[in-house]
Structures are given as structure tokens and as C-alpha cells.
């Protein structure tokens, strides 16, 4: 059995047997993989709280034929401030879920890893207004895995400039905007301001997003757009719950 050491995020965990856990980890080098942490639910476990959700950790594991066996683990970041805010926890957990949805087991995505880390760092530093970070996380993750919606100011079908159009239609099928001639009733209505917001959210680093002022109802609209886009092109929702319904209470870290 080979031995590996890896820096990971804990993105999912399930209780297994009496005192074990199966944990889903997202490694910078190896992508998403699962492993069993024997005895990790015992009070005196050597793992301590290493496998709390969202933690960044260093782990050592053996490759088994079906499952990896975690032999050592140490938390590098446990996001204490983030975990005091229900909204910030919800956003962190939904982003973690999205990583599971977007990436297949073993698919590497170091840029998504760095983006997730930057997102959690921001959530830990400032817990208010976490939805801007969340929508930007989805936009950038889709880009990094090669499913990039197009927010250029041109019609994707005929190439016409859309600058003069006050109301735009985003077509999830086409993955971008269509002009009045081409849209034929299809798509989600957006304004030029929305188009510019989406471009900015995609381009601005997570650490500088806070200076953008985007109302929450706009973020909910962009979230719906990305979910519809992802349903069409990836045949699955980005996350199986709407942004709106999750606002308010929440925060169970299990
Ligand atoms: Zn057109």
C-alpha cells in the first residue's frame, strides 16, 4: 500500500460503524477523494477535531483497494470566526457541496482549491454579506472547470452588439446572451447592469469583492441563472437548494 501526505479540505463526512467516519476530502494535488478515519469519533481519538467540516488539514493516508485509510491528520485552519455565523457556515457548506457536484473523484482542480481557500478566508475575516462570495465562487469554479457562461456584450447566435439593448435575455442553453431577433421568448431577463455585475463578480478576486455593492435579490437572480446553466450543461444543479430558501436560519455543522 502506498503512503501519501496531502493538504486537504474536509468537504463531507459520514459516521461509519461505531466510532469511525468516512470523510470526503478535497486535496490540492489529488482532487476529491474519500478515506476512512478509524476511531475518529472516540473522545480520545488521535484525530481530535481534524475532520470537522470545512477544516483545512494535512493528512497522511494509505491507498487501499476500495478505500483510503487515514493514518494521521492535523488541522491547519479551523475557521473559528466563520463558524460563529450561521450564514457564513451555510455559504461555506454549500460551496463545499458544489465542489462535490462539479468534480469527479480524482479530478484535480488546484484553482478551485485556491478559490475555496480564499472564500473561506474571507468568510472567516468578515461574516456579513457572504452571498457575494458565494455567487462569485460558483462563477469562478465553473470557469476553472471549463464550463464558462459567456457574459460578453454580443448575441451568441448572430454576433450582434448588445450595447443598445436595455433588457437582455440570458439563454441557459446557449450559455450566454441572445439579441431580440434570436431570443424567441427563451431565457432569463437581465439588465445591462446585471451583465456588468456578472463580469465583475467573475473577474474580481474574492479578497476584493466586498467593495462591490450588489443587492441580495440580484444575487438570488444570478444564482438561479447559474443553476439553470449548470442543469443544462452539467445535467445537475450547482447545489440542490435555492439561495433564497437558505437565508435566515441554519448552521448545523454536521
Ligand atoms: Zn442575435
Explain the overall architecture:
The structure is a single chain. Helices cover about 35% and strands about 25% of the residues. The protein has about 250 residues and is an alpha+beta fold. The protein folds into two domains: about 5-75, OB fold (Dihydrolipoamide Acetyltransferase, E2P); about 80-150 and about 190-245, Up-down Bundle (de novo design (two linked rop proteins)), CATH 1.20.1440. The strands form two sheets. Strands 1-2-3-5-4 form a five-stranded mixed beta barrel. A three-stranded antiparallel sheet has the order 7-6-8. The longest helix has 18 residues, at about 215-235. The chain is elongated, with a radius of gyration of 20 Å. It binds zinc ion. Zinc ion binds near residues 158 and 181. Zinc ion binds next to helix 4.
Topology diagram in text:
Layout: E1 3-16, E2 20-27, E3 31-37, E4 56-63, E5 68-77, H1 86-102, H2 110-125, H3 131-144, E6 167-171, E7 176-178, H4 180-183, E8 188-191, H5 192-203, H6 216-233, H7 243-246
Helix pairs in contact: 1-2, 1-3, 2-3, 3-5, 3-6
Bound molecules: zinc ion (ZN).
Zinc ion binds at residues 155, 157-158, 160, 178-179, 181-182.
Amino acid at each position: 500500500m502506498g503512503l501519501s501526505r496531502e493538504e486537504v479540505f474536509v468537504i463531507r463526512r459520514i459516521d461509519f460503524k461505531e466510532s469511525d467516519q468516512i470523510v470526503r476530502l478535497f486535496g490540492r494535488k489529488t482532487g476529491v477523494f474519500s478515506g476512512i478515519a478509524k476511531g475518529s469519533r472516540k473522545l480520545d481519538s488521535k484525530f481530535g477535531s481534524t475532520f470537522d467540516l470545512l477544516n483545512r488539514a494535512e493528512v497522511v493516508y494509505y491507498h487501499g483497494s476500495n478505500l483510503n485509510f487515514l493514518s494521521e491528520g492535523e488541522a491547519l485552519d479551523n475557521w473559528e470566526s466563520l463558524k460563529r455565523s450561521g450564514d457564513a457556515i451555510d455559504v461555506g457548506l454549500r460551496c463545499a457541496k458544489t465542489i462535490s457536484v462539479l468534480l469527479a473523484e480524482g479530478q484535480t482542480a488546484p484553482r478551485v482549491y485556491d478559490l475555496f481557500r480564499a472564500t473561506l478566508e474571507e468568510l472567516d475575516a468578515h461574516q456579513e454579506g457572504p452571498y457575494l462570495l458565494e455567487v462569485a465562487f460558483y462563477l469562478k469554479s465553473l470557469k476553472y472547470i471549463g464550463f464558462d457562461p459567456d457574459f460578453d456584450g454580443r448575441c451568441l447566435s448572430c454576433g450582434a452588439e448588445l450595447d443598445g439593448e436595455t433588457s437582455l435575455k440570458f439563454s441557459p442553453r446557449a450559455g450566454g446572451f441572445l439579441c431580440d431577433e434570436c431570443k424567441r421568448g427563451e431565457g432569463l431577463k437581465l439588465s445591462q447592469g446585471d451583465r456588468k455585475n456578472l463580469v465583475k463578480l467573475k473577474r474580481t478576486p474574492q479578497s476584493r469583492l466586498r467593495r462591490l455593492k450588489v443587492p441580495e435579490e440580484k444575487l438570488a437572480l444570478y444564482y438561479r441563472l447559474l443553476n439553470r446553466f449548470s442543469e443544462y450543461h452539467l445535467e445537475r444543479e450547482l447545489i440542490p437548494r435555492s439561495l433564497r430558501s437558505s437565508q435566515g436560519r441554519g448552521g448545523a455543522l454536521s
